[in-house]
């Protein structure tokens, strides 16, 4: 019998990798060298190598798959900054010579989160860590200040780094060769606590208006302090603010939200106001910024409190202006409603036990945020209110009406409607003010108050102030 021609059936990528591991190609701890970068590199220091050795093994698996397939791959972005500062890694972003289609084929579980711009979210088995792998880019001009006219994928790490915004973001690490590629001296700027653009500052900011806000965000280096921009970037920030008009409000809010939540937010806001950028985002929100320095609040409340303080000079009667500005900026509904609520009660603190009970019930989950805002504006007054609130016992009748609508309708013979609802609220107000604890005590007030002939629109409400 003649021997047939053998048919080769391609193995899935995961099976290929498993076979290579079994043959020692991906031995434990080994980083495989890929394409050599086309820009100079300098050896990592011992401390930086120790930082690299603490990276998750899943990262090595991703890099080795790419290099085994003939590609080049480098660690880029925020994690490189953290490596230079010897801080723990955060997100792990990678740049590669492989196209998005090639990356997807190599990692079957990946997600094409931004494939049109070259970015694939890579996932592999046995880990929850996700890696953003982006093809090296050689972009044309940015026609509208929002995005490049076209994205051309390239093979040059040097050209890719030249398109990045700031020098501290234009570094890359070849993890297999232990090399740092830093053509724009980002490491020097990190050491000198300086923020510089890559190349011409005005050109970089003009490519994408959002880079204006990114510059202010990067000035906030948290425990490392407030970093000043160099003279070229400082000048460009003043002249390129108008580029924000070409950026979507969603992107502006996303970046501004991170600025408000930063440790150095007061200094950043001051710089934004001086440069005329803050008024482009929230026109007319001109409250003095001293209170921003005085604010001490929780991480959960900090953005809401800072927004409320920024709007504190706008009269409460003009709350619709505040609401309009926040809607334009696409601030989430929950945040927007909290700011409106807190703005409306600025300067209104309880002064006795009765008002304390009503204050706690009406303000509810926003008590701490309100007190923190008041402390930033007038610490002495807020401290006195805190002491009073702490001394005030919890309401005997709880924080909800003891008498419900059905019970009240049976007793008063009122049908469902506005009058019944307002009477229920009036009784709840009496429950709070008189600190009543039973329905008998509450209903007894029906024989005292004039609810049968008076106008329900004139009856007391459960509100603050």
General description of the model:
This protein is an alpha+beta fold and 465 residues long. It folds into 4 domains: 183 residues, Beta Polymerase, domain 2; 86 residues, cca-adding enzyme, domain 2, CATH 1.10.3090.10; 111 residues, no CATH class; 54 residues, no CATH class. The chain has 23 helices and 10 strands. It has an 8-stranded mixed beta sheet with strand order 1-8-7-2-3-6-5-4. Helix 15 packs across helix 17 and helix 15 packs across helix 19. It is elongated, with a radius of gyration of 31 Å. It starts with 12 loop residues before the first helix and ends in a 22-residue tail after the last helix. The N terminus is likely disordered.
In the CATH scheme, what's the topology name of the largest domain? Beta Polymerase, domain 2
Number of helices: 23
* Helix proportion range: 40-55%
Mean pLDDT: 91
Give me the count of strands: 10
Distance between the termini: 99 Å
Largest sheet: 8 strands, mixed
- Low-confidence region ranges: 1-27
Shape: elongated
Q: Strand order, main sheet: write it out.
A: 1-8-7-2-3-6-5-4
How does the helix and strand content classify structurally? alpha+beta
Q: Assign the CATH architecture of the largest domain.
A: 2-Layer Sandwich
Oligomer: single chain
Strand content: 5-15%
CATH class of the largest domain: Alpha Beta
Radius of gyration: 31 Å
Total domain units: 4
The CATH superfamily title of the largest domain: Beta Polymerase, domain 2
């Amino acid at each position: 019998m003649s021997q047939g021609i053998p048919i080769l059936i391609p193995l899935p990528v995961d099976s290929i990798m498993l076979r290579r591991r079994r043959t020692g190609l991906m031995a434990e701890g080994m980083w495989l060298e890929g394409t050599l970068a086309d820009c100079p590199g300098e050896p990592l220091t011992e401390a930086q190598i120790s930082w690299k050795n603490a990276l998750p093994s899943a990262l090595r698996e991703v890099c080795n798959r790419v290099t085994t397939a003939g590609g080049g791959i480098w660690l880029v972005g925020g994690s490189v900054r953290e490596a230079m500062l010897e801080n723990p890694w955060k997100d792990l972003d990678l740049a590669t010579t492989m196209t998005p289609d090639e990356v997807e084929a190599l990692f079957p579980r990946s997600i094409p989160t931004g494939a049109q711009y070259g970015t694939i979210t890579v996932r592999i088995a046995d880990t929850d860590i996700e890696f953003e792998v982006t093809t090296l880019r050689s972009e044309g001009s940015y026609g509208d200040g929002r995005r490049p006219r076209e994205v051309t994928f390239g093979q040059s790490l040097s050209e890719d780094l030249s398109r990045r915004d700031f020098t501290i973001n234009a570094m890359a690490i070849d993890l297999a060769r232990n090399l740092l590629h830093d053509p724009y001296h980002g490491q020097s700027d990190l050491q000198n606590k300086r923020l510089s653009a890559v190349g011409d500052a005005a050109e970089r900011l003009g490519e994408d208006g959002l880079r204006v806000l990114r510059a202010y965000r990067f000035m906030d280096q948290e425990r490392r302090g407030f970093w000043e921009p160099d003279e070229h970037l400082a000048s460009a920030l003043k002249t390129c603010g108008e580029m924000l008009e070409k950026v979507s409000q969603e992107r502006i809010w996303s970046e501004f939200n991170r600025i408000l939540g930063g440790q150095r937010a007061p200094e950043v806001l001051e710089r934004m106001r001086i440069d005329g950028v803050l008024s482009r985002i929230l026109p007319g929100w001109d409250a003095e910024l001293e209170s921003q320095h005085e604010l001490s609040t929780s991480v959960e409340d900090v953005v809401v409190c800072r927004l409320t303080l920024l709007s504190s000079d706008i009269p409460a009667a003009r709350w619709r202006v505040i609401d309009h500005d926040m809607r334009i900026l696409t601030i989430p509904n929950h945040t927007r409603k909290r700011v409106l609520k807190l703005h409306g009660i600025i300067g209104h603190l309880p002064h006795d036990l009765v008002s304390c009970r009503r204050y706690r019930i009406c303000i509810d989950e926003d008590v701490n945020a309100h007190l923190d805002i008041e402390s930033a504006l007038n610490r002495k007054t807020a401290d006195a209110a805190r002491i009073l609130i702490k001394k005030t016992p919890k309401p005997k009748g709880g924080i909800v009406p003891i008498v419900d609508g059905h019970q009240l309708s049976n007793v008063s013979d009122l049908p469902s409607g506005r009058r019944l609802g307002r009477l229920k609220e009036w009784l709840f107000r009496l429950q709070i003010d008189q600190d009543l604890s039973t329905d008998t005590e509450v209903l007894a007030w029906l024989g005292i108050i004039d609810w049968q002939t008076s106008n329900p629109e004139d009856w007391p409400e459960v509100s603050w102030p």
